[in-house]
Amino acid sequence: MTEPIERDFWRDTWVRYLGYANEVGESFRALVPGKVVRFSYAVAFAYTFADTADKSYRMLKKDGRPKRVLIETGDALLWQTLASVVIPGFVINRLCAYSLIYMSRYPKVSRKARNWMAVGVGLASIPFIVHPIDSGTTMLMDVTYRRWVKNEL
């Protein structure tokens, strides 16, 4: 009989979407004050740090060797920072910005309507970028950080 696969609470449940709070903030950038966007980044980083702390604590309980704990901590922090904050934040920011630039070609559409359309583009794209960015970040980590630290174990 096969052993049940352990689900990662931080990456395999709805909680993963907390890491995408900054994408919602980026989507609304054209309509809300900068403080709101910065707060959305604070939520995403809080999620990132919570997952990192959880992975570190689990490795501490499992192995206990400081070097392994630090490697696991680095892996979780790098992965989450890239997959939850940096890459998707940049993607959504550019999608919304380019949407606004494109829509500026239509001066008959009010500025408020163009801003709302850019918000819609940003929000609608979030579900489509989550899995490709997660998978791409995993592949990037596999060929860089994880390969480099494998020699250290």
Automatic annotation (TrEMBL):
Transmembrane residue ranges: 77-103, 115-133
Signal peptide start and end residues: none
One cellular component (GO) term of this entry: mitochondrion
Pfam annotation, one family: MTP18
Domain of life: Eukaryota
GO biological process, one term: mitochondrial fission
Key words of the record: Membrane, Transmembrane, Transmembrane helix
InterPro entries: Mitochondrial_18_kDa_protein
Family from the record: Belongs to the MTFP1 family.
Alphabetical list of PANTHER family matching this protein: MITOCHONDRIAL FISSION PROCESS PROTEIN 1 (PTHR11001)
Protein known as: Mitochondrial fission process protein 1
Organism: Trichoplusia ni (Cabbage looper)
Gene assigned in the entry: LOC113496007
